[in-house]
Automatic annotation (TrEMBL):
GO terms for molecular function: catalytic activity. It comes from the Bacteria. InterPro entries: NUDIX_hydrolase-like_dom_sf, NUDIX_hydrolase_dom, UDP-X_N. CDD domains: NUDIX_CDP-Chase_like. It comes from Acinetobacter rudis CIP 110305. This is Nudix hydrolase domain-containing protein. Residues 67-195 form the Nudix hydrolase domain.
Length: 206
């Protein structure tokens, strides 16, 4: 597993260099070389039997200097139970969240995700953590991702499932459903329960 993660991380770095090169180069021949380099990366990914159908289109859409993706997550409690949503992609449960959308602040993105996925209206009040996905026991993935976790207070709304999250609910510490560790780890959730007593003074970061 460790070797696989290092392999994916190395290919991710090569892809970032190629993306940045494509954006900045003025030489037509260099442009061609960077595009060939991306094709070679796709081949290496394919050899590991990872789906590459959308690899090149997605990479080329991400113009400019290559930077990590940002995943926004919202920690919401009600009566000492945490808000979770079941993901259609893997059938597992996570705290609400997703990729940051352009045009919204970090906090607004977290608030928006909660409303869209669960029907609950919240306000972000504290940035709990800003983590590097690679430094935590999430399953390996090709993208380099930063994850922002916001503590949120409930303003209103009613639990309402969505297309992406067909089931939503509040769960106690000892009644958690199977967790989507691609999005949040069980250890992180247990730490969030610990914050019910007192929020940390400082934001955790890697």
């Amino acid at each position: 597993m460790k070797g696989s993660a290092e392999w994916i991380e190395t290919l991710n770095k090569i892809t970032g260099l190629a993306q940045s090169g494509l954006y900045y180069t003025k030489d037509v021949y260099d442009k061609e070389r960077y595009e060939q380099l991306l094709e070679h990366v796709r081949t290496l990914i394919d050899l590991k039997e990872i789906d590459t159908k959308d690899f090149i289109p997605n990479v080329l859409q991400d113009v400019g200097y290559a930077t990590p993706k940002v995943d926004m997550r919202a920690v919401v409690f009600k009566e000492k139970k945490i808000l979770l949503a079941k993901e259609t992609q893997d059938g597992l449960w996570s705290i609400p969240g997703g990729w940051a959308d352009v045009g919204f602040s970090a906090a607004e993105n977290a608030e928006k995700e909660v409303l869209e996925e669960t029907g609950i209206e919240v306000r972000a009040t504290k940035l709990l953590a800003l983590t590097d996905r690679r430094k935590h026991p999430h399953p390996s993935m090709f993208l380099h991702v930063y994850k922002a976790f916001f503590w949120c207070e409930i303003l209103g709304g009613e639990l309402t499932p969505s297309i992406e999250t067909p089931e939503v609910g509040f769960f106690g510490r000892d009644e958690l459903p199977p967790i989507s560790t691609a999005r949040v780890t069980e250890d992180q959730i247990q730490k969030f329960f610990g914050y019910l007593e007192e929020l940390p003074e400082k934001t955790h970061f890697d």
